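Report of the visiting student (M.T.), summer placement. My assignment was to run the structure pipeline on a short list of targets and document each run. The first record concerns Isoquinoline 1-oxidoreductase alpha subunit.
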Amino acid sequence: MVRLKINGSVQELDIPSDTPLLWALRDTLGLVGTKYGCGITQCGACTVHVDGQAVRACQTYVGDLVDAEITTIEGLSGPVADAVKTAWIAADVAQCGYCQPGQVMQAVALLAREPAPDDDAITTAMNGNLCRCGTYDRIRAAIHAAAGALGTAAADTAPAEKG
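After the run finished, the C-alpha cells were exported:
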C-alpha cells in the first residue's frame, strides 16, 4: 500500500512501491492528463510537479514520494497557472496538443521560481520538453506573455508609493 498526496487529496493505492508515478496516475487513478511519451525522461510529456518542482512521472517511483505534494495538470491552479493557461490559449500554442500538459507544467514551474525569465532561461527550463509539431516559438511567446501578465498583476496589487 502506497499513500500519496495528489492534487491536495490523499490517495491510498494498492500498488508496488516501484511503480512509476505515471502509471499510478493514469492506470490506477484515471488522471490521464499526464501523458506517456517515451518512458525514459526524454520528452517531457509526463511532467508533473513534486513539491513544486517539475519532474518526469515516467521514471519517478511512487515509493519515493511519501510525504510529497504531487500536482498533475488536472490539479494545477493559482495565479501562475492561470497566467500560463491564458497565455497558451492567446498564443494558440497547441497544435496536436499531446505534449501540452507537460509543457504547461514545466512553464508553470519555471515562472514560479523565475518570474521574468529571459530567452536563455526559457530555453534551459523547457529543454527536454519536446513538441513534435514544433510550436517552440509560440511556447516561448506564451511564457513571456504569462510573465508579463504576472508582472502587471503584481504591479497592480502593490501598495502605492507615498510621495
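The domain at 2-75 is CATH 3.10.20.30 (Ubiquitin-like (UB roll)). The first strand starts at residue 2 and ends at 6. I thank the supervising group for their guidance throughout the placement.
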